[in-house]
Amino acid sequence: MKILVAIFIFFITAIYLIVPSPDFPPPPPDSVRSSEPADTESPLRRAYFTNMSREEVINFYRKSFDGNTRFFSIRLNYPPEEAQTIIRDQTRSTYLEEIVHPLRETIYINGFEPKEKKDEIWYEGKHFRQKVIVRYVPSSSITRLSIWFCTFVIGYFIFKELTNFCNLKK
Question: CA-to-CA distance for 111 and 95, rounded, in angstroms?
């Protein structure tokens, strides 16, 4: 019975992992895509100017990211200082969040909302509430399946050793 449950879990997870990664999430509504050099150097990182709030931006991306695949996601919050490592060096940040599909792809959402008048955001003659940078980190199905297979095999041997150890204690 244990073997059947393990095989069932293995194949259900393999099906979850084999589904192709979704495309880059769409831009927030009523936003303007940045054409600044630092914002266009990678096809997996895009910047937008928007008047949406932080929660509106995060909810929009969570809905669009989850809607593409029908998978569950986990929302992680990082200190804004991490944006210089995760997004790009010299990135200004008020918040940095990650929406991840476990064992699959992830998107990082960095937002900068100015607190002082000198930092106000003007782009192409229009004032915006914040600048949002989205970094998409896809993964290939083959890589995901390889990692899952290795994890499953190692997990099997760990489980086997633990049961042997528990039987010795009795």
Answer: 5
Which residues, in sequence order, are bridge partners of residue 97? 77, 109
pTM passes above 0.70:
yes
Spatial separation of the C-alpha atoms in residues 109 and 53, rounded to whole Å: 13
Give the dihedral sign, CA 54/56/60/66. positive
- Give a yes or no: residue 169 inside a domain: no
Whole-angstrom distance, CA of residue 131 vs CA of residue 169: 60
Q: What is the pLDDT of residues 62-77, one digit of tens each?
A: 988 877 556 688 999 9
Q: Is 158 contained in some domain?
A: no
d(CA 137, CA 158): 31
- Is position 13 within any domain? no
Cβ count near 124 (within 10 Å): 9
